[in-house]
Amino acid sequence: MRISRLSEPDSPSVPYAGRLMFTQSWEDPACDLAALRPRPGETIFAIISGCDNVFGFLLADPARVIAVDLNPAQCHLFELKRAAFLRLSHAEMLVLLGVRAGAARRQLYERLRADLSAAAVGFWDAHAQWFDLGLLTQGGFERYYAWLRALLRVVIGRRRLERLFTLPQEAQRDFYEHEWDTLRWRALVRIACSKYVLGRRLDPSWFAHAEVASFGAHFARLVEHVVVDLPARSNYFLAQLLLGRYMDENGVPEYLREEHFETIGGRLNRIMPMTADVCEAVENLTPRSIDCFALSNVFEYSPRELFDRTREALIRAARPGARFALRNLLASRRLADDPAFVVDAELSRKLRDADRGFIYSRFEAATLANSSV
Question: In this predicted model, what pLDDT tens digit does every residue of 190-235 receive, in sequence order?
């Protein structure tokens, strides 16, 4: 399977100059599934990003998953993970991605090259050292987390970070208030999560439309929520942030679990990957052809007029009763502002609060209004 393109890979509109920004998906799939309620035989539109949730959607037995990303590097990651399902055992895939220790990661990659496009081969050949370092830690976002984790080990302490994952949930608030929430922590989050530092470590385009007065205070509240209110032991997102690894092979995304390996591998041909801007991709969809839209926070980086244009295209592409999941990080891009969408406010708040990925400030679970079909 080759990835179709609606945009030229060297176009100036390609984000991050084509850098690989995500090797993992940071949207909690449980929240997407609760919002979208995909049924067997339906068609799902999703953002590729780190690929985890795109592969995970296959467990819902869809007819198709239309997977889109404007960044060619994310599409190269999709090709690599797809080839791993095709050519490797489950144990070998875990070694390739760095979930398990292993010295033969480059040899495992060599077995996948024939299934990759020439562009993907060129990309991975140029970054073969990432396999040695543990591929899942090598995206731009994951490297920012590694830098932040090194600072946390100084400010909080490695042993305290490890101990959080041994505590019963009812003990987490006391842990946060007495061992985490110090003056040094508050200074760290104010600096390390400032707009300036985030722009330098990640990409300034992420924050061009931000509507938050204090980045540090905003992210401090989100960290307090995930450390205090959500069970740390079962939060693989938090483990990746604070420890740089999964706690064990039971605490991994659904697409990496051994019991799902054959099911996903047998349904890979249902994914239709595409390198394209989301607006362009949606505008090219057949009218009334999509049941579920998993949109992440892709409109975070869009000017308002592009979001409005894409929203109109979503309405045309959606089947009657279509469901939508949309996140906001720092910029306000709301489906609720359009009467064509019915947002379940109670469910949306519940899913925002339950999101183990915790970095998003808003979650919208919506359906297409009857008047729009």
Answer: 888 887 787 777 776 766 666 666 777 888 899 999 999 999 999 9
User: Residue 260 class from Cβ within 10 Å (0-12 exposed, 13-18 middle, 19+ buried)?
Assistant: middle
User: What pLDDT sits at residue 370?
Assistant: 76
Check if the beta carbon of residue 292 is closer than 8 Å to that of residue 36.
yes
Asked if residues 98 and 133 have their Cβ atoms less than 8 Å apart, the reply is: yes
Average pLDDT, stretch 120-139?
97
Using CA atoms, how far apart are residues 79 and 123, in angstroms rounded to an integer? 11
Q: Which residues, 6+ apart, have CB-to-CB distance to 371 below 8 Å?
A: 339, 340
**Distance, CA of 297 to CA of 345 (rounded, Å):** 18
**Residue in the structure block whose two tokens are 């894409």:** 310
Q: Are 367 and 342 in contact (CB under 8 A)?
A: yes
310 within 8 A of 279, measured Cβ to Cβ: yes
Among 276, 344, 271, CA closest to 310: 276
Distance of CA 346 to the CA centre of its chain: 23
Encode pLDDT of 298-314 as tens digits. 888 778 888 999 999 99
89 pLDDT tier (thresholds 50, 70, 90): very high
Distances (CA, A) of 310 to 81, 245, 305, 316: 29, 36, 9, 10
DSSP 59-102: GG--SEEEEEES-HHHHHHHHHHHHHHHHS-HHHHHHHHTSS--
pLDDT at 212: 65
- Residue 361: both structure tokens together: 């400030």
163 compared with 205, residue with greater pLDDT: 163
Burial 166-177 (b: 16+ CB within 10 A, else e): eeeeeebeebbe
Burial label, 243 (beta-carbon count in 10 A; 0-12, 13-18, 19+)? middle
pLDDT of residue 193: 85
